[in-house]
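Q: Study each token:
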Amino acid sequence: MSSYPLLNIFWTMLWFFLWILWFMLLFRVIADIFRDDHLNGWAKAGWTIFVCILPFLGIFVYLVARGRGMGERAQERAQRQEQAFRSYVQDAARDKPPSDRGPDRVGELERLAGLRKSGDLTEDEYQQAKSKLLAV
């Protein structure tokens, strides 16, 4: 350990993190190439070959030529996913059949029984609320 100076450790860590960053960028560009619906098959093949054969130059040229579109496509994809999630949640909440409301009724009946025990509801009020709840 004493033969490896502290500055060399920092340089090694820097190069390691740059190497990881490079691979993340490479995978992001390749994923963008294949996710882009506007590119035809030949264009996707060309960009992929260019990025794989000359990775540094290919990535930089891709970022210059199509970098702005990369962000826009990612934003559109995120908005579509969010909209699909929201519509799924709304459909799931709206399409809940009445038979699935059992636990809600049980909780409401327990609450009514608690109110009756504490004296906040009379027996007649409790019976009316219970019959109204069970009739729904």
Summary: The CA atoms of residues 116 and 122 lie 6 Å apart.
